Amino acid sequence: MFKQAISRAATRGRSVRLSSSIATTQSSSSPAPQSPNLPSTWSTSQRPRPTANDGPRFEQTSVEYQPNALSAMELISREPIRLVKGRKAVCDGGGGALGHPKIFINLDKPGPKPCGYCGLRFEQAPHHGHDH
Questions:
Q1: Per 3-state DSSP, what percentage of the chain is helix, strand, and coil (rounded to 5)?
Q2: Other residues' Cβ atoms within 10 Å of the Cβ of residue 34
Q3: What is the DSSP string of 28-78?
Q4: Which residues pair with 89 in a beta bridge?
Q5: Could you give all domains of the chain from N- to C-terminal order, each with its CATH number?
Q6: In whole angstroms, what separates CA 33 from the centre of its chain?
């Protein structure tokens, strides 16, 4: 019956397109990590890595061969806290054209304070006396 439908469509001058659905299975049962140094998503609007590249644009793209960038949030959390002598810290993101606008961070309250642009953390150095 299937062959008859194909031959009828071919005699009428219509194009016949046959598609086969082949189920692909992943080699591992656990999902791929979001990045090598952070296994989960870090934003509510972010799609997990295995499903982020779905659709016709990525149908012949193998995820295993794509670059797997490191999470910037995890990398910046590994940076040591910079101790500052004084009540304010100045951050310009490394200076020059590759940095960000210079900002001043108030360090009056205890604990590390992050830069709003680059995430570097600053803390007031502990002082035991008055340096006059």
A1: 20, 15, 65
A2: 20
A3: SSSPPPSBTTB-S-SSTTPPPHHHHT-SGGGTT--GGGS--PPPHHHHHHT
A4: 105
A5: 32-71 (no CATH), 79-124 (2.60.260.40)
A6: 11
Closest CA relative to residue 122, chosen from 112, 108, 132: 112
Neighbours of 50 (CB within 10 A): 13
End-to-end CA distance of the chain, in Å? 99
DSSP 116: T
Question: Tokens 């990525």 appear where?
Answer: 58
Read off the pLDDT band of 90 (50, 70, 90).
very high
Question: How many residues can be counted in the chain?
Answer: 132
Residues 87-110: b if buried by 16+ CB within 10 A, e if exposed: eebebebeeeeeeeeeeebebeee
Rounded to an integer, the average pLDDT of 58-74 is 74
